[in-house]
Structures are given as structure tokens and as C-alpha cells.
Amino acid sequence: MFKNHPKGLLAAALANMGERFGFYTMMAILVLFLQAKFGLNGTNAGYIYSTFYFSIYILALVGGIIADKTRNYKGTIMAGILMMALGYLLIAIPSPTPVSNVTLYLTITCVGLFVIAFGNGLFKGNLQALVGQMYDNEQYSKMRDSGFSLFYMFINVGAIFAPMLAVGIRNWWLRQCGYGYNADLPALCHGQINGTITPEAKETLTRLATEVSGQQVTDLTAFANDYLNVFVTGFHYAFAAAIGAMAISLVIYLLNKKNFPDPSQKAAAQSKQTQVVEMSVAEVRQRLLALFAVFGVVIFFWFSFHQNGLTLTYFAKEYTALNLFGMDITAELFQSLNPFFVVFLTPLVMAVFEWQRKRGAEPSTPKKIAIGMGIAATAFLVMTIGSYLANLPLHKDIIAAGTSPVKVTPLLLIVTYFILTVAELYISPLGISFVSKVAPPKYQGIMQGGWLGATALGNQLLVIGAVLYESIPIWMTWGVFVIACCISMFTMLAMLKWLERVAK
Fold first, then answer.
1. In terms of Cα–Cα distance, which of 195, 425, 394 is closest to 301?
2. Is 493 exposed, middle or buried (0-12, 13-18, 19+ CB in 10 A)?
3. Closest CA to 28 of 171, 126, 193
4. Is 237:92 a contact under the CB 8 Å cutoff?
5. Among 4-8, 51-55, 302-306, 413-417, which stretch is predicted with the lowest mean pLDDT?
6. Separation of first and last alpha carbons in the chain
7. Which of 121, 189, 221, 503 has the fewest CB within 10 Å, making it most exposed?
8. Alpha carbon of 334 to those of 48, 68, 320, 413, 421: distances in Å?
9. Virtual torsion, Cα 198, 203, 206, 212, nearest 10 deg
């Protein structure tokens, strides 16, 4: 699989696995942690989630600038790994729940999230720039798209297990303390403690408390306090697992550091002829304009795609029957689907590209990105149709009742994640490849950061999904994302000839 690729590709992918592990730990449990720990509603948790993900990607732009200015890409990457580990440590330290001082502990949590985001910014884009430089060698240049696809596949191996481990740790701690898992209980417990619970929801709490504790519960307030504390402590321990993943990434990176290329050395060694042909002012301007155009378009895709950690997670918790073929599952486990599909679909997608290449019919990278956006629209169309046919109640109605009277099969989310992953494989690794190919050498770091900055803007818009989710019928919420992905696709197609010309 790696036979015709640079030797450093696998090492770079393995070094990136720790970052992916932490990322998907956050994808799986962050909003659920915020709701259980602080009693936040979906919208307020969504604001923190979207700001965190905005910060991850916008700070990648800062990280690119730092690396480009200092010309110390490898040192910047190592600093990023260490900062991410520190951020996870801040969140992993348990504190009593329910929280006595929400402002203080929420601030500590947000500081931890910022440290993670800043570390990620120093790490992610710059490592991608190193991978891109591996394919600047004429020997490997034709393998750039497949190389980034392989890179993307292997970094997601760790992501498969992150949600599983997080859930396993949380549920293990619940069992150690004599409780079972129920997705509806944290919100019900907060309602009981705050005195906002409705009589109907109180009946639901009584029933569920008896189920998870295995005995009749008479003091609901005492149960609510204890269950929340145990539930959230399990989440704290889950965040600690990400620290171990970062340590593994650090070791792999240090062992292979000397074998990675250095963009600063390439820039210094470039010949004058190359500078004239490839780095003229006009050429630089065209390349930057093309990159910024693509950045603007993909904002809409990321606004839709990263709902997987927000509204799709809410949907899994509140509207999905958490039982698959007779086995109990948890809402967080759906976050393992995306990296699982990435790993196992990447060879198939690459095989399709190879088959097209041999027939002389392989789409250009910009066209692949446009196709991916159309596929993403299809995924949310599935959610739209499935939610409409199920006649799901409004979010406010299930909050009043304590649980949804109608729950859909988990197969709806599984199919959606499958289609979304196919879309991702047409967009994310190929978008990174496009940036590495088109960006002028002296702007490699900052342009990789620019790609991630566009992702940041899309992520900041994520909270719109949370607002819609709690305000309008669920099927309409998914319809908004169908429209967003279609806008991206048609805009990309309108620019296709120009982008193909610039990328030659």
C-alpha cells in the first residue's frame, strides 16, 4: 500500500493518530459532557462546541504563520503535541458535580479547551505541510492525492477507538459505583436539582432511576446528585485517556523527526529558475486567489459535516433507539462510525480513482471536491426524509416529557454517517492535497492553515444547527444542511475550469 510513496508518510500518519484520538474523544463526548457537568441546554453547549472547533482550525492559521516566520516547522509541531496534552490534563482532573461554582469550573474547562485548540493549531497544519513536501519530489508527485488519502486513512485508526474507549471508561465507572447507563438521565437529574422538572418528566426520572440503580429510589434529589457526579467523573477519566494518546504520538514523532522533510530547507535550496517560473508575482496571485475561492466554498460543507459532533449527537441521544440487533449501545458510539468508514472506505475510493486514472477519466481534484459536496447533500437528505416519515416530536416536547415517545432505528444514523464519510473522502484529504499542490512554497504553512481556517469559519456556524434543532421540526433542520451542501457543490462547479487551469 505504501510501496510507491515516500518513507516518511506512514511515520507522519502514526504521529498524527494521537491528535485524531483526542479529536474524536471530543467529538463523541464534549457536548454531552458540557450538558451533564453544567446543565447546559443544547444551544449553550453548542456555542462552546462551535467556538472550540472554530478555535482549533483558526489557530491552525496562527500555527502556520508561526512556522513560516520561524522556519522551525518541526519544533512548532512538537510544541503543539505538548500543549494538547496539557489541555487534556486540565479537563481530565475531576471536580464535584453538580458544580458549586459554575462560572469558575466552566472557565477552567474553556481554558483547557483553548490550550488544546492552540496546541492543535501548532501541530495539524504544519504536519500536513511536511507531508505535502514529500510529494514535491518528481518521483512521487503523481501520487499526491492517493498519498493524502492514505495519510487520512491511517490517522483515523486511532479515532475509531477513541469514542469506544471514552464510553467504556465512563460506563466502567458507572458500574463501579453501582449504576447503569441511560442517555436521558443527566438532563432529568439537572431538572430535579434545579426544580424545573415537569410532573411527566418526574415520572420518567423515577422509572429510569429504578432501572439504572436496580432498586426502588425514594429520594430523587439525592439520586440525581450522586448519579450526575458519577456520570461526569467517568467523562473526566475518559479525557485522561487522550493524554496517553498524545504521549504515544510524541514518542513516534521524536523517533522519526530527523527523517521528515523541512519546508524551510526546501525554500532555501530552490533554484532561481524555479523561482521565475513558479513563483512570479502573477503566479502567486492566481494561486492564492484560487485557494481563497475554495476556502470560501468549503465553509458551507464544514458547517454541515461537523454537525456529527453536535446535532447528530443530540439526535442519537434523544431521538434514536439505542439498541442495535438486540445489543444496547450509547449515543457516543456513533462517533466511531466516521473514522471506521474512513479506514475501510479509503482503499475502495482510491481503487475507484485508480480505475478512472487508467481509463483517462479521473476527475480533477476540484471536481472530486464538488462531487463530495453533492454526496454530503445526499446524506442530509436521508436524515430529512427519515425524520419526516417518523413524525418526530419537537425538541421542547421531549424535554417536557423527559424522553421522546418516538425513536428511530439507529440504522438511519449509520447510513447517514456512511454517506457523509464518502463525501469526506472526496473533500478533506483531496482538499489538503489541492492546497499542498497549489500553494506557493513559501506559503505552505499558512495556506494549510488557511484551509483549516475555512474549516474554522464553518465550525463557528455549527451553533446555528443547535439553535434550529431546538426551535423547528427536526426534518427542517436537516433540510438546511442539504441546501448548504448544494450551494457548495454548484459554486464549485461554476469555478471548475478556472481551478483546473490554476492547479495544472
1. 425
2. middle
3. 171
4. yes
5. 4-8
6. 26
7. 221
8. 21, 38, 11, 8, 13
9. -100
Q: Specify the CATH number of the domain 8-503.
A: 1.20.1250.20
CA dist., res. 306 & res. 312, Å (int)? 9
% helix / strand / coil in the chain, to the nearest 5? 80, 0, 15
Q: Are 24 and 159 in contact (CB under 8 A)?
A: yes
Contact at 8 Å (CB) between 276 and 121?
Answer: no
In DSSP notation, 172-216 reads: HHHHHTT----TTHHHHHHHHHHT---HHHHHHHHHHHHHHHSS-
Neighbour tally for 141: CB within 10 Å: 11
> Does residue 301 contact residue 378 with C-beta atoms inside 8 Å?
no
Type of residue at 374: G
What does pLDDT average to over the chain? 88
* Cβ contact 408:320 at 8 Å: yes
Residues 6+ apart with CB under 8 A from 229: 96, 97, 98
Q: Do residues 410 and 321 lie in contact, with contact meaning Cβ atoms separated by under 8 Å?
A: yes
pLDDT digits (tens, 9 = 90+) for 335-366: 899 889 988 888 888 888 888 888 888 888 88
> What is the pLDDT, as a whole number, of residue 112?
96
What sign does the CA torsion over 5, 6, 10, 12 have?
negative
Of 195, 50, 64, nearest to 124 (Cα)? 64
CA–CA gap between residue 16 and residue 157 (Å, rounded)? 10
Selected residue with higher pLDDT from 213 and 58: 213
Residue 52's pLDDT band, with cuts at 50, 70 and 90, is: very high
Do the Cβ atoms of 319 and 397 come closer than 8 Å? no
Q: How would DSSP label each residue in 300-345?
A: HHHHHHGGGGTHHHHHHHHTB--EETTEE--GGGGGGHHHHHHHHH
pTM for the model? 0.83
Is 409 within 8 Å of 421 (Cβ atoms)? no
* Residue-wise pLDDT tens digits, 56-70: 888 887 888 888 788
Residue 89 has a pLDDT of 95
**Domain segments of the chain as ranges:** 8-503
Residue 408 three-state SS = strand
Helices 411-438 and 311-318: crossing angle in degrees, nearest 10, is 170
